[in-house]
Each structure stands twice: as structure tokens, then as C-alpha cells.
Amino acid sequence: MEHTYQVLRRRFGLEDRVTIHHGALPREERWRSERAFKSHVPVMLTVKTLEVGIDIGSVSRVIHYGLPEKVSDFWQREGRAGRRGQPAESLIFPADPWTRFVTSSPTRFRRAYLEGQVERILADHRSPTSAPPDKNPSRSFYGEKEVYRVVRADDPRRLLKDQLDPEDVPRSWAPGCAFRYRGDVWIVVGPPDEERRTIPALPAEEYDPSVRQLIDEGWWPYPRIEIEAEAREGEDPEGCGLGHVKIRWTDTVLVPPPDVPDQPILLESGDLTVRIRAFYVRLHDPRLRSSRRASSAELAIHALTYALKLVSGAPLNLIDHYVHESAYAELPEGEIRSAAYLLLYEAPPAVMPLLEWERAALKAEQLIEREAPENLRLPRCPWPSRSDPDPSPRLACQYLHAVLERIQTLRERVRREEL
Fold it and tell me: Which of 121, 136, 164 lies at the terminal end of a domain, its last residue?
């Protein structure tokens, strides 16, 4: 930004027409810049420092150099213009691959960005500003969702965490899960209260002093989940489509640090399930019961996820995945069959069929060959762990190509339905 500022001033002679504002400037310079912008300078270059807290009513145009990762930041920047009710406009300069992708059409921009499909912006469903735009277009931009709050189990008035996505409850807020609050470790001690939309928690010391001691020694609670795809009527659940995924928490175990050979300790168990609409790709393969094949499939998906970010700037949390290694599953008729599968899904569904999968697959092959698995870790995924066997690059590439075939089928199916 400093370079752009100097180019505008020196090369184009705009010394008196442009100013700059960012956190690295001394406070006195920021104040001078604000006063100049409020009085006679028509253009200001800035970053996050002017998103909130500054009310300059004469601003009539906001130019975004790329899009911020958080949709809430985008709306804060939009809110700097037209504050006196005058006409205002917004321009977006696609400075990076992801911005170019989501702004290539109005529909894609709305679905993939503004509606919070990538960043799941939450609002309390009881708030008037969380009403859907068609019900309250003048006040709403978030969308309605019944969010959860974490409270102290024996004092529900004490709020610990707020605005929790229901989809994240089985992953991060199920019984036995841990989190940090004001320097202390807390443990979720029970299932969510659906009526009050609260999740009870206690300090780890009060939950179990021995658990707190193990956490101090490097152990950490880890929730185990199962994820299934539900096809729409008439679709093949073994393939791909637009349907639902079910995320089910089964138990939480206390996992030792990598240098401790002890086995995990069971903390809590139960059944906590959420159901989410999603695009999905499901690859059924009984051979995934082999831990080496499961590790190879993980490598393929991790490399593909990073490749999507490198090719089109897609956020690492845009596409989720799950490798199910259970040996057998019982069918309603009482039959038994292998239930090992690989699942990719985007929930809620937005842009999965539109991504540049072919280019990403070529890049993923390079990452599989060149990068160590530790360099391809993904948020919320425990792979690779110390107990996972070394993956096979050859097997990883095979799973990569199999996933690409299913993606192409998904793309064709979506295209036919749109036509």
C-alpha cells in the first residue's frame, strides 16, 4: 500500500489529492490523515484501520482491492460510504484468484461470498437484524440461524462463548471437548440444551482434577465423529450429488502427546447428530480398511485442498472431507457389508462444481510427490498423526484421479439440472 501511495503522489502528481491510513503510522500522522480526508483530500488508501469507528459522512465510493476473507469485514468497509443517505457505489478490483472467481458473475458472488457460504456468518435468530433479506431488506444482511452459546454449567448467566455454528457442535462442542477461556482450560460437560440454545461447561479442574493434570502434561480431548452422505430421492448415495451430510459425534477421548506411548482415555460418549445440506462426492472402497490406504487417501485430499487454494485461492475450509475406515456397517435389512469410503462435501452447497478441479489435480500430483505430509495439514483434521502409517504417493494419485472422475460426474449432473 505504501508503494501505491508513493506512485500516486510522485508519478501522477497527486500529492494534494490522496492520503494514507494504517496501523503502522504514528498516531499523529493518522489523525492528520483523517482530518485531511474529512476536509479537502478526496482519496484515502487504507486497510482494516478504517473499517469501524470512523464516521466520515461525505464518502461516496469504496474501492476494494481484492476481497477480505471475512464477509463481515466486507460489509464494514461497505458501510463507510453513503452514511448521510447520499448515493454511493462500490467497486471491487479482482486482485487475486479467489476474488476473480467469486466476482465472475453476480450469482456466484452472491452464493459464494455475500450469503456467507464460505464464511458462515451467524446472527442470533431472535435479533431483528437477522431476518432474511426478503423479510427485512433494510436492516438485514446476515441471514437467520439459531446459534449456540457456551455457559457455565452451574451458572447459565455466565457467558463463555457466543455465536457458535450448530454445524460445529459435534466437531468442537460435544461433551468432553475442551477450549480455553481467559487463560484457563474448560470442558464441555453435557449435550446442548436445545430449548435455551446453550452448551454447559466447567473448568477442567472442577470437571476432573486428573484430567486437568494430563492436559497440563500435553494431553488433549479429541472428539470422534462419523460423517455420512444422504442422497436425494432417485440419486445414487454411493456417487455424488446435492443432498445432505450427517455429522455424528460418538465419543471424546483424551489423546496423549506424540512422545507418550499410552492409549487414549475415554472421557464422554453418546450420540449427537446434525444434518446439513451439501454438495457431496462419495467414493466407496472396501480397501480403505487398510490403514495405509486410508492414509494415502488423506494425502490425496489434503494435497487437492491445498492445490485448490494455489490454483484459485479457495479457502482451506471450503471443502470438507472424511475417510471412514469402519470394517462393517449393518443395513436395515440386517445384511452386513463393508462401509469404508472417502467423502468430500461442501456445506452449505455453493461453488463445489464450479472450481478448477482439473488444474488443481495436476498441482496436487506435484504436492504429493514433493511435500512431506506434515506440510499439508488442514484445519480440524488430525491427519497425519504419529500412529498413521506413511502414505503411498502412487495410491494417493489413484484416489486423486478417482475423486476427479466423481467431480466431473457431479458437474455434469448440476449442469443438466440447471439447464
Answer: 121
- CATH code for the domain of 37: 3.40.50.300
H or E element, residue 287? none
* Global model pTM greater than 0.85: no
Surface-to-core class of residue 78, CB atoms within 10 Å of its CB (0-12 exposed, 13-18 middle, 19+ buried): middle
* Opening angle at CA 193, ends 189 and 198, nearest 5: 80
Rounded Cα distance, 256 and 149, in Å: 29
Q: Which amino acid is at 78?
A: E
Count up the domains in the chain and report the number: 2
The pLDDT tens digits of the residues spanning 54-92 come to 667 778 888 888 888 777 788 888 877 887 778 888 888
Q: Same domain for 115 and 248?
A: no
Inside any domain, residue 277: yes
The β-bridge relationship of strands 329-330 and 336-337 is: antiparallel
- Measuring CA to CA, which residue among 173, 180, 174 is closest to residue 215? 180
Who contacts 371 (Cβ-Cβ below 8 Å, separation ≥6)? 303
Pairing of the two strands 341-346 and 265-284 = antiparallel
For residue 69, the enclosing domain spans 2-121
Residue range 261-310, pLDDT digits in tens: 888 999 999 999 999 889 999 999 989 989 999 999 999 999 999 999 99
Helix ranges (DSSP H) in 13-70:
27-39
Q: Which of 121, 150, 165 is the last residue of a domain?
A: 121
